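pasting for ref
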Amino acid sequence: MVITSMGNPSTITIKHVERLGPKAVRLTLDPGAHAKEWRNIPGGYMTFCLPCGDPILYRSYSLVQAPDAMFPQVVVKETGGSRGSAFVNRQFKPGMEVMAYPPQGRLFPSHWDEEPIHAVMFAAGAGITPLYSVMQHLLASPWDHEITLFYGNRGVSDILLRDELEVLAALPQVTVKHILTDESLDDELYNGRINASKTMLLWNEVVTDLPTKAMVSGPVGMKKDVLRGLDLAGIAAENIRVEDFHHPPHLEA
């Protein structure tokens, strides 16, 4: 077992498994006696120690529960060629005990919650999960934050947390725009991939009097394209945060 600056992993219990689609599940976790270590971090993630590899696979997944939720939750989407997400989707059952590291977080800087901001979010696929966490945090904040989410997927059936996003989109301070590569939408701006040029066009759609902050989460290529677009749009680097869905850098395995 890997020991890191976070300490030792602990045993937690899979409390509930909710299937969100053929290849996606929402897991409710019960840390038991370790609950104090499992604080809710906006945009944070936890790390499973999965017994499906040699050595053990360490895979991080973003927390998606509401700020006042009693138990932590993660959404795991099975992706092609990923043993970790496949194992979680196919093998995790209620009552199962697993080893895991408690939440960590570096996506959402605390000073962004010291005044009202307009958070402009770019997500693709499973990249929605940390941004959904941040959205809930911002909406629970005493500040009057605004949120615009641009979320890319292949088609409507691929949208993760679709119902939850529709609830948030009904709020006056939240705008959710889907971008689909199957080009099934009427407005051409919202068809295709979120590349650099589309990022610039989407950014120009945002109207606000508040300071703007950008957040990006998704596959590597998409993140590179969005960052290029934000740079061309003149967005300063200190106003941009990017989530990394690769092997957790805090682990040595």
